[in-house]
């Protein structure tokens, strides 16, 4: 693990004046993996990424990318990183091909290498038929593809993508995710996002960050288990019952093993979220209870732990202290 | 070096893609044409283009800010500066690339005035030596003006602000310093020295020498140190932005 880590971040901190945007974070990204960098807006994702890509130096702590220190060997780091910044800033007056050629020149690629790589990345990012277009005339989806193509151009070992799917339509998002998933193995990818399904789909590991600190990290499955253990959603039963509301509520609350009942929707049909010990055979008990009282059981299902609930729980200022 | 040329080439092209380039060229030709027809192209007079070059800086003061305003300001505003800075290119390479790109366009602008020299040649036989030194002077003067423009473009995210502050600085160096120099009372302590320093700071006398056909090291040094100073200040600005 130590040797195979492509990105090593140690006690990284960034202050903007008195505001501490990133607070003493440490993590590692293994070679060839796709790691999701997850957090609400303003959590410090972009600041961390900007330190990793040598846009600005850290206030304290250190980071190594592809074996080079971001502060002391910034030029080598930049040579080994492909970076797609938020919002994909481009030159609207240039042609796609021209832009990629310019970017290749900035990375010191010779003419033959540029021509070959432009053809390759254009094909990879489905840009081939747009190479002669003006960048300013491209749709948002194509601009994003061009940004990714630019990041891939010099075939860097490390890719850093800051919110690559923002502003894309659903089919474009799917394409972008497919592309990112394809990059795994050949490249180490750090993907920043605040969209959870994205992380579940493409990332092998997740780092959740909030208010400048790392709140949790692990594989998506580990995080789900962690959240089940935290007693949140894993053991949650969603029950819909037709019956007198106060009676239904008190009867279910009285069952052994039930810890908490939350009313999701009231009325002639009750929608309840029941939290309790699953080993107490809650489902059988509830079913038996409803039949015994002569109510109608309309629906009962296990509310699976989603990363989304975990995320909300962990990044919510009120509860995060306990979760972290 | 290839990176510097990549930045410079891109900048030069993008200047030609924008309408600003053509407005600037038109205005320049218009005003140089005025100088030419009023002061140079006079029947019966000597074919002497000197006044046209001597007063050229008064036009360029208002032209150069439009060439340089977008160089860095627009990169900051659009977020492209982040792309540039995270590319494997040093700050100094960015600055020199931008400067050279703007200089390339500036050369096109001053070269356009060759049409007036050609007109003069059609009707008379002007002396080529001062014409040659005039263009050398315009090149050196432009170098300093462009460097000043690069500096102010690095200071702001707003092109207009960059253009205006460049313009104010150029007006101060090109016009105001000369006046202020006259206003220094002789009763002041070290009045002659102050006048001398102010006189050295002004653009006009340095350019006037070149227009007369005189190549003086003092004038060359003035323009080159001005260029160096402002490019260095730009470097300082970029470095300090990194730490904010």
Feature tags:
heterodimer, A: Rossmann fold, Alpha-Beta Plaits, 2 domains, six-stranded mixed beta sheet, four-stranded antiparallel beta sheet, disordered C terminus, B: 244 residues
Question: Would you give an account of this structure?
Answer:
The complex is a heterodimer of chains A (324) and B (244). By secondary structure, chain A is of the alpha/beta class. Chain A has 2 domains: 5-227, P-loop containing nucleotide triphosphate hydrolases (Rossmann fold, 3-Layer(aba) Sandwich); 235-303, 2-Layer Sandwich (Alpha-Beta Plaits), CATH 3.30.70. Chain A is built from 12 helices and 14 strands. Chain A has helices at residues 45-52, 74-79, 96-106, 111-124, 140-152, 170-183, 196-202, 220-229, 245-254, 282-293, 307-315, 320-323; strands at residues 5-16, 19-30, 34-38, 60-65, 68-69, 81-84, 158-162, 188-193, 205-210, 213-218, 236-242, 258-265, 269-276, 296-303. In chain A, strands 6-7-8-3-9-10 form a 6-stranded mixed beta sheet, sandwiched between helices. Chain A starts with a strand and ends with a helix. The relative contact order of chain A is 0.13. Residues 319-324 of chain A have low confidence and may be disordered. Chain B is an all-alpha fold and 244 residues long. Chain B has one domain (2-242). Chain B contains 13 helices and no strands. Chain B has helices at 2-17, 19-40, 50-54, 56-68, 70-78, 80-85, 91-111, 114-123, 128-155, 159-183, 191-201, 204-212, 217-242. In chain B, helix 5 packs parallel to helix 9 (128-155), helix 7 (91-111) crosses helix 13 and helix 12 (204-212) packs across helix 13. Chain B is globular. At the A-B interface, helix 2 and helix 3 of A face helix 1 and helix 6 of B.
């Amino acid at each position: 693990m130590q040797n195979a880590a492509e990105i090593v971040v140690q006690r990284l901190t960034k202050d903007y004046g008195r505001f501490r945007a990133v607070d003493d974070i440490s993590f590692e990204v293994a070679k060839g993996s796709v790691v999701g960098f997850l957090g609400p807006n303003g959590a410090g994702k972009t600041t961390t990424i900007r330190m990793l890509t040598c846009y600005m130096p850290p206030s304290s702590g250190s980071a190594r990318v592809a074996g080079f220190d971001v502060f002391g060997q910034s030029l080598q780091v930049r040579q080994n990183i492909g970076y797609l910044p938020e919002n994909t800033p481009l030159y609207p007056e240039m042609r796609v091909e021209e832009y990629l050629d310019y970017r290749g020149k900035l990375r010191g690629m010779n003419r033959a290498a540029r021509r070959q790589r432009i053809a390759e990345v254009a094909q990879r990012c489905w840009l081939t038929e747009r190479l002669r277009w003006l960048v300013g005339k491209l749709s948002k989806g194509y601009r994003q593809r061009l940004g990714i193509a630019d990041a891939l151009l010099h075939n860097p070992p490390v890719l850093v993508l800051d919110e690559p799917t923002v502003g894309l339509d659903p089919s474009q998002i799917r394409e972008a995710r497919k592309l990112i998933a394809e990059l795994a193995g050949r490249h180490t990818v750090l993907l920043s996002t605040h969209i959870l399904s994205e992380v579940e789909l493409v990332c092998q590991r997740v780092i959740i960050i909030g208010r400048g600190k790392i709140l949790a990290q692990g594989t998506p499955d580990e995080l789900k288990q962690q959240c089940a253990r935290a007693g949140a959603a894993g053991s949650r039963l969603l029950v819909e019952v037709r019956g007198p509301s106060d009676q239904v509520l008190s009867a279910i609350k009285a069952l052994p093993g039930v810890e908490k009942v939350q009313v999701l929707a009231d009325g002639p049909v009750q929608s309840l979220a029941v939290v309790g010990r699953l080993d107490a055979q809650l489902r059988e008990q509830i079913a038996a209870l409803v039949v015994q009282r002569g109510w109608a059981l309309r629906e009962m299902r296990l509310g699976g732990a989603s990363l989304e609930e975990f995320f909300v729980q962990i990044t919510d200022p009120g509860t995060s202290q306990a979760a972290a | 070096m290839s990176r510097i040329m990549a930045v410079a080439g891109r900048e030069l092209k993008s200047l030609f893609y924008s309408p600003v380039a053509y407005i600037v060229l038109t205005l320049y030709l218009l005003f140089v044409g005025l100088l030419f027809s009023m002061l140079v192209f006079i029947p019966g007079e000597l074919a002497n283009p000197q006044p046209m070059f001597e007063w050229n800086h008064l036009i360029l003061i208002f032209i150069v800010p439009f060439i340089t305003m977008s160089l860095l300001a627009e990169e900051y505003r659009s977020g492209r500066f982040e792309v540039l800075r995270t590319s494997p290119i040093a700050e100094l390479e960015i600055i020199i690339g931008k400067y050279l790109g703007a200089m390339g366009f500036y050369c096109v602008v001053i070269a356009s005035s060759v049409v007036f020299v050609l007109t003069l040649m059609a009707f008379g036989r002007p002396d080529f030596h001062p014409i040659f030194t005039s263009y050398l002077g315009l090149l050196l003067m432009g170098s300093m003006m462009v460097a000043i423009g690069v500096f102010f473009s690095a200071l702001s995210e707003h092109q207009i602000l960059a253009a205006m502050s460049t313009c104010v600085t150029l007006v101060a160096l090109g016009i105001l310093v000369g006046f202020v120099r006259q206003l220094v009372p002789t009763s002041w302590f070290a009045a002659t020295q102050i006048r001398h320093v102010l006189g050295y700071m002004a653009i006009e006398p340095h350019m006037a020498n070149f227009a007369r056909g005189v190549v003086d090291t003092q004038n060359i040094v003035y323009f080159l140190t001005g260029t160096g100073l402002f490019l260095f200040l730009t470097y300082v600005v970029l470095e300090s932005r990194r730490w904010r």
